[in-house]
């Protein structure tokens, strides 16, 4: 009996050791969520200081990459412990949470924008945010929103995330072979860009974020987050770090110079060679142009080496608000979409310095408050409930 039990225990797969939370991922995801809020407010002076102004990528790329990184950590460990079926079920459950959050956000955002447009008697909000189709065919628009085929402005990131996770649920076993997973992902990315593959949308054209292209960034995050038993990650630890680091720095400098000459100071664009401008103008975000992909990977590679996971300042007061927001990414993201529209209304009323400062501080404080409340609730939910007082139970009986 004891021998058979020992044999069964020996044949079981070794449980994956529990990894400490990587506060770097939380920090940069929190910063990305804050940048998304800032960039969604027209006329916001802080929008001149976000990541999109210094390199050829923005907070969306960071958000998707870190979403893949977090998925690689969480579901990779479940895959090792429980197998593919249970891990895939957890991914599908997460998809359900995201879907519900997206529909609730869609309803609230549509009501927010529609009421503001009616109250101010100005349809510019409806037109700019691509909600005019909802006013023309509300029932059809609601159905298409449920099918993820109707995506107004600012409401296209969660549908992308949902499809990426559904793809991940099917390809979970490949996480054990990260290089094969990356090879398949890159092949799909190349085919998508070459043949212009896309998912159709109700209003015409394809999705603003093409999942067939953006999956490559998500898969890179997966392979960075996944850890095979007894081994380091497959990509972060490389012997030629200094050479790759130098190339990454050079690439980011070149793209910053081009951004400065074509976006910040367009009068200098005449000094850029014509052949450079021809491909520079074709750098698209919808299908994740290779230059955008290289930019976010270069930035990630440098930060992964420069910011160590054991750095004390990650646990300091200055980093705390962004780490907190990064831990509670879904509620903070959804709230940020709604808060950004309120900030827009405030800056349209007055865009002087006091209002700029007030709108941005109020927005950041609101995001931190949402993150804190969500974190507090989850901690209380995980805390075992105290047993009822025996004296009270006897008195009640």
Automatic annotation (TrEMBL):
Pfam families: OpgC_C (PF10129)
The keyword Zinc-finger is annotated on this UniProt entry: no
Entry-linked InterPro entries: UCP028704_OpgC
Keywords: Membrane, Transmembrane, Transmembrane helix
Domain of life: Bacteria
TM stretches of this protein: 27-47, 59-77, 98-118, 153-175, 180-196, 208-228, 240-263, 287-307, 328-347, 359-377
Name assigned to this protein: OpgC domain-containing protein
Organism this protein belongs to: Plastoroseomonas arctica
